[in-house]
Design a protein that fits this description.
The chain has helices spanning about 5-10, 15-25, 25-30, 35-50, 55-70, 75-100, 110-130. By secondary structure, it is mainly α. The protein has one domain (about 5-130): Tetracycline Repressor, domain 2 (Orthogonal Bundle), CATH 1.10.357.10. Helix 4 (about 35-50) packs antiparallel against helix 6, helix 5 packs across helix 7 (about 110-130) and helix 6 (about 75-100) packs across helix 7. The longest helix has 27 residues, at about 75-100. The protein is globular.
Length: about 130
Amino acid sequence: MVDTRNAVLACHTPPTAPARRWRQRPGAAASIGDRGALSALRQLCLEVMPLDDTRRQEASVVIAFADRTQYDVRMAARYRTAVGQWREQMRMYVRQARVAGEITTGRPDALVVDTLLAMVVGFQTANCLTAR
């Protein structure tokens, strides 16, 4: 019998798997190019939003994984690490956008990143709850 916890850990560590897929896909990577800043942040957010069948399926796995972190210490640690990496990538793009004058709010970068992260995870969750 397959240990599903290990299978999930081995094949998918959300939310870095969508980010890894985003970096590996020539089209998405090409669309970012050297631009960074707000353009890169937007592309990263779009890549993990459940906008097509592939990303809807990924969102379902991400939400299922997050649910298991409530009672599995190992998965919770892995999830915190992955979210931390994703948050840092987003923070880098927010800093670049602020320096470029694309973000002018007085709100701290951490708050901007946390708001975006909550929005994207909210889209993933809503997709799972309203899936046909």
